[in-house]
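Predict structure. Chain length: 666.
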Amino acid sequence: MYLLIIVLPLFSSLFSGLGGRWIGSYGSCLVSCSCLILTTFLSVFAVYEVGFSGSSCYFILMPWIESGTLKMNWGFLFDTLTVVMLVIITAISSLVHIYSINYMENDPHIPRFMSYLSLFTFFMLILVSADNLVQMFLGWEGVGLASYLLINFWYTRLNANQSAIKALLINRIGDYSLSLSIVSIFFLFKSVDYGIIFSCTPFFLSQAVYFLGFEIHSLTWITLLLFVGAVGKSAQLGLHTWLPDAMEGPTPVSALIHAATMVTAGIFLMIRFSHVVEYSPLCLFVLTIVGALTALFGAITGVFQNDLKKVIAYSTCSQLGYMMVACGLSCYNVSMFHLFNHAFFKALLFLTAGSIIHAIFDEQDMRRMGSLIKFLPLTYSLMLVGSFTLLGFPFLTGFYSKDFIIELSWLTTYKNLYLSYGLFSCWLINLAIFFSSFYSFRLLYLVFINNANLSKVVVKNIAESSTSMLLPLVFLAICSIFMGYLTKDLFIGFGSSFWGASIFILTEHSNFIEAEWTLLTKKWLPFFLTLCGALTAYFSNRFSNKISVKWLHPFIFFFNKKWYWDKLFNNFILIPLAVNISYESLLKTLDKGLVELSGPYIVPKYILDWSNLLIRFQTGQITHYVFFIIFGVFLFCVFILNPSFYLVGIFDSYLSVVCLLLLLFL
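Prediction complete.
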């Protein structure tokens, strides 16, 4: 059963990709959806056996690499953390496959699209089920490759090409850091297997490494390298710029990347290595600060976006910041709980946005929409459910995880540096709630309530999506309403043993009991900030013509330019490295200079000169040919048949050669 969970998406990808020419569009859709739905049911059975029955599954398939002390196998680890990720990945992927049947029906390359979706799912399953770092890295790189193929699915579009390359290159930074962490872990632990690493971590608390003359704690070095890898994949502040540009792919791709697969890989990595991260206070501090800044950045930037999908993309960036904050607060189970909830309501938001775009003929600018509540009432209801769940409205799914992260952030203190970083992060993520409410209600107002700005031709043809598109949305809406309540006690309930040994939290870092006694005003603060954000969004958009605050224009311009992160990358990284070093120095000096002169330019030139020189010996006179023959025989006798030539007769031999030449010419 466990192997089928891994193999079925691969079979679906190969069958749809290689056999799509013969089975056609509907055949590839049927095969892909059937395989993914079956995989989802098997994942649910795995959750029952591993999570509820407490029977973890670990098996070795075959040997893989054996070189000295490095020994690796193709092995799979199915603990509670893995099976929960399996359910998220396979469930969302199945719904995206079903949704794509009608969404992509007019595209001539549906088999290729279904193949890429299944390939994406397969590599993500490899990533979460691996029992060692190298196998996990294989899935990590495979997810990056599949994301490039999906973002660049419409490869005739220049923006799609640029966005796919940008996503691939920015993720190279995180991947390079992750590869360095794997090497460091093997150097320290002499193994890359999770079981050995996690069980031996307490014995290396006093180990240190030296880097550029500085002494660094070994576990801190390893965890920071892992964190940089997570920053690239989960789009934390600094390496986040690829995330909004990934919207150039089809909308089902956006839902799959942002809801359940690629962007959650970095969060999963930090949760998986909780056994190591817990022993590095500096890493916990960095996780919390970067996560809080990312949450605030994503929320503020989303306010000033006009593209429907990019608003939701920056929302994803903000929610990933909440998950990273939870990891920094040593609340890995809460982070995983929010990841689980986020998968449902974020997939709902993206697929609902796709339904809107599909209904109004691929228009994505919210300023050109309006009054769609009259034409798409069901889509409006589903979008409303997703938005309220995102904001953590009481008793919806997002409320149980998001608000609990905020309550926990009031309690943590970084004692080593005498800084209350938990309180600092708390105010940042509370401020992010205000802006999250602002952009969510701004989206609802501009798309559904505002005066219509669509052409008459579009308005006459607007209609609700087909059943195959609406059924996944209804299922996701139900999960977005009830799933948090149903799984709260299981995932983060006090005394719950659901996670077992898959998540490790030091006793002194646990604050779950104290969070229950947080002041009531602090518990209600997120709700009041949500109301303030909603009212501010309504009045600022409803009376935008009457409101003019000139002193805010510089700030609005700054936030509208995404905090100038792209400008900073271009001026301080791209131009100095790519232009000055790569082009001016390496390309011109090495490629165009040394390599070309010593290889493809010099060799043909000298061959031509040598050939012209040899042509001059072809005189057509028999006396010259006799001379060359005798001269060749003489050299053969002197150099080959006379060994003493190499030892003592060098001078005499040269003299004899000169004499022979003189005799011949005379």
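Summary: The mean pLDDT is 83.
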